[in-house]
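FORM 7B - TANDEM STRUCTURE REPORT

SECTION 1: FIRST PROTEIN
SEQUENCE AND TOKENS:
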Amino acid sequence: MAVSPTNLSQRTEELINFDKRIFFAFLVITFILLRYLTNILIIEAIPGSNELGQDGTFTFFHIFNTLNYLWTPFALLWKFTLTAFLLWIGTFLFGFKVKYGEIWKFVLVAEMVFILPDLIRLLYFAAIPPDNYWEIRNFHPFSIFSFLSTDNVPSRFHYPLQAINLFEVSYWFLLAIGIHTLTGKNYKTCLGLVLSSYLVGLLLWLAYYAMVYKG
């Protein structure tokens, strides 16, 4: 049985009725844990990793990863803040009255979809050990990049092609559910709002990245 827009809105509100601070902590811990376990696989994929670890060759690698773990909560906060701002601007342009803080909460919940690619990467290489570090680094499931030969793609386009993937597209639809829940407006209209605000911002960022990339 199809879910009516009203029921979709009600069910969504019920699902996100929890402490957002605890949920944020859950996201941070989950991302750090998945990346830590993946980094272990990276080290084990390097030939002679045991000997290199003993002589301190991996010192810089460990320092870089530690800083990356520490930066994770701030990176997520920045992403949520910017994404919510773009959507808030979109609601303003569409004539909807929505509080910025309410949009931020939905952005927080929608981020769950990005746990999946990290989890898939970890499980894939746990089952099929990688031959080298680059095999893990270039593994971006269900992205445009994954369907292309990396040798034929200029480096400046690697990140943009990795960023456009199935999970990112799913994210747009989840954000639209959030806007629909907050405004009660037609879902297609809310999806159009997301595409004309968040997606435009994302595409501008990816285009800028490709233009300024030095390699």
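SECTION 2: SECOND PROTEIN
SEQUENCE AND TOKENS:
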Amino acid sequence: MGLKISSLLMSALAVMLGIVVHESVHALAAYALGDKTARSRGRVSLNPLRHIDPFGTILLPLLMIAAGGPVFAFAKPVPVYLNNLKHPKRDEVLVSIAGPASNIILACVGAAILSLVASEAVAVALPTAVLSALVDFSFTFIFVNLSLAFFNLIPLPPLDGSSILVPFLKGDALHAYYRIQQYAMPILIVVLYLLPMVTGIDLIGMYFDATVYPLGDVLVSLALGR
């Protein structure tokens, strides 16, 4: 039971850190590209309360953690007014990519920490319990941030992949996508929960098998010098 609680706390902390940085970087990128809206509303902040969405930030990751599967989440959308951006179409994509990119960078930071704590000099200097906790958290931090990055790249609102995809669509394709957007949340719920439960087909799991886990394994291998 103690190990389970410890694992839950580590996952929750990793998710919270990943989301806070993700959203702050969105706001910072928008500000750098000409739109001050998010910054003026306090979204360039490491305060979690500035970014929390009750479902996406709290309920969804808790359900994922309890289910023992991959952990992913989303926060309140960062307000961006495209007309304020210097190059609206290009900059919308850059602002959207900034969040997932920050999580991939955080995963690399987690790998660097893992490499440090796994080094002989640090390993002999730390108590076994502390060393074990740091190693476990590093692993969790790597895979949670990669999960956040790739989950947010799914092209459905309110996820970042939606804003990345839209500028590249035109005509009938764009109109069709806008129609699909109306049902984005039901689609996510069906894909996340109902489809695996009813058919055993886990699309998110297959997606993560092709993205999150291979990249995570590479980072862990590099960190441990394998």
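SECTION 3: OBSERVATIONS ON SECOND PROTEIN
The longest helix spans residues 2-32.
The chain has a mean pLDDT of 86.

SECTION 4: SIGNATURE
Preparer initials: ____
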